[in-house]
């Protein structure tokens, strides 16, 4: 798979760790369902702490990506869901630590609630 990062000055620049768009040639497309901060062995939320939930959600996502035969480099699109957009900067910082550059395309959505009282959810599209 080869990724081409799309960037134009005719649209606003990315305001975080993401690309305006990503084009992909070849490969298998994988659509990952949303992951929240549940501990895999207990099914319980890792913590009430927002940052801990974000990190666990990304760990859960990585586990599914690995099982699908991919890596974080195969992500072409992420969608983040936050129950408090005031915590956007914290989620952005954690994502920038975890997701390799060039960054995938991304959307961030503020939502009223998430399953099991989660404060954060992440879903992904990959091309492997």
From TrEMBL:
UniProt xrefs under CDD domains: YjgF_YER057c_UK114_family
Similarity comment: family membership: Belongs to the RutC family.
Species per Swiss-Prot/TrEMBL record: Achromobacter aloeverae
A GO term, aspect molecular function: deaminase activity
GO CC aspect terms: cytosol
Family matches, as NCBIfam families: Rid family detoxifying hydrolase (TIGR00004)
Annotated protein name in UniProt: Reactive intermediate/imine deaminase
PANTHER family, sorted: 2-IMINOBUTANOATE/2-IMINOPROPANOATE DEAMINASE RIDA, 2-IMINOBUTANOATE_2-IMINOPROPANOATE DEAMINASE
Source species taxonomy: Bacteria, Pseudomonadati, Pseudomonadota, Betaproteobacteria, Burkholderiales
InterPro entries: RidA, RutC-like_sf, YjgF/YER057c/UK114
């Amino acid at each position: 798979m080869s990724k081409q990062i799309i960037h134009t000055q005719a649209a606003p620049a990315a305001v975080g760790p993401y690309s305006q768009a990503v084009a992909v040639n070849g490969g298998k497309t994988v659509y990952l369902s949303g992951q929240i901060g549940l501990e895999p062995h207990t099914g319980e939320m890792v913590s009430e702490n927002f940052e801990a939930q974000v990190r666990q959600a990304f760990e859960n996502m990585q586990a599914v990506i690995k099982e699908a035969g991919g890596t974080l480099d195969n992500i072409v699109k992420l969608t983040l869901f936050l129950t408090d957009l005031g915590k956007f900067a914290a989620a952005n910082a954690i994502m920038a630590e975890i997701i390799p550059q060039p960054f995938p395309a991304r959307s961030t959505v503020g939502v009223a609630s998430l399953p099991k009282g989660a404060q954060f959810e992440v879903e992904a599209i990959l091309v492997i």
